[in-house]
Structure formats: structure tokens, C-alpha cells
């Protein structure tokens, strides 16, 4: 079951657009609320799509999770899902949902712990510029862009794939791509850094659109 189809951004996709995942545990899941509207605006301009510009918020245990094809997760602190949320997320991703998680500095340990509860049988696989998402629209064949310093480590991307090789979860670490989607005044990033971040975000969406 695929939510997205190239050239046919209709049905649940056009109605619901992009959603942010609200979670317990103490992490600031809500930070920089403008990032998804800004990404949708950039994607619409470059891909001739019509995603809504408002941000939806959904919890992992909600039935309405299944209305959203693309869900974004971020934060600095702890992330915690209960058993119902773990099972709901698992079924949502196995049925076609796509989770993009971006460590905003401090989320890494809890995200790795919780996503392993969702998919104990699958590992986070590191991805590089040779993976099709990196060149799906804009060329990032040289690798993931570094948006914020954090611990000054190289940026990394990871994926979780189902048994058919479909990417269900994409996780970026030590880069903070989504901070680059924020308004210019939020982090005072230079325009070229924000452009790079938005371009990579556009690649994520185009990759989902083009794989059918």
C-alpha cells in the first residue's frame, strides 16, 4: 500500500499534507512550528504540487495517524512511546506510512531505543549519497549537508526498510536538516544553508512521490 503517487497528489495526501508527531517523555516535539509549512511551500514551488501549508499534529497512538502519509519527528530531549503507540506506529509504517526523524541535538539515544521497540527485527542502516533519495531531484550525491554544528561530527543518515526493500523510516543525525527549514530569523542561518536544507527536504518528498 503506497500513500504517494507521482503526478497524482490527491486524496488523503492533498487533504492532510504533512504532520508532526507529538510524543511524551519530555522532548520538545513542538519546536520551530514553521518548518513543515516552509517545506510544503518550497516543495509546491519546485515540484508543482499542492500540499497544504498548515501543520497538522498527530500522536503515535491516534487512529488518525493513518490519514497522514508523511510524519515528521524532532526534538532535543527524551522520546517515549507506550505499547499502544509502538504497535500503531508499526502498523502505520508497514502499511505505507513514512516517518522522517531529525535529531535536533539530544534526541539520538531515545529515538534509537524507541524505534527498536517498533521494529526489533530491523536495524537502522546507514545511507550515503549513492542511495536514490540523495539524487531524487536535487543532487546530493556527495552526501548529507551539514546544517548545524552540534558535536561537529560528520552528518549521517539512516533508514529502516521493510522486507520488500521499501524505506519506512528515514533518520538524520548530526546535521539538523529541519532547522534549515525554519524562518530566517529563527536560527539566523545564511540563505545558502537554508536553501540546501530545503532542497534536501524536497528530495525526501520527491523520493516518496516517485517510488509510487
Question: Can I get a quick summary?
Answer:
This protein is of the alpha/beta class. The chain has a single domain, classed as Domain of unknown function DUF4159 (Rossmann fold, 3-Layer(aba) Sandwich), CATH 3.40.50.12140. It has helices spanning 12-16, 35-47, 83-94, 108-118, 184-187, 191-210, and strands at 18-22, 56-59, 70-75, 98-103, 125-127, 156-161, 167-173.
Description:
The protein has a 7-stranded mixed beta sheet with strand order 2-1-3-4-7-6-5, with helices on both faces. The chain is 31% helix and 17% strand. It has a single domain, classed as Rossmann fold (3-Layer(aba) Sandwich), CATH 3.40.50.12140. The protein starts with 11 loop residues before the first helix and ends with a helix. The chain is globular. The protein has 212 residues and is an alpha/beta fold. Helix 2 crosses helix 6 and helix 3 crosses helix 4.
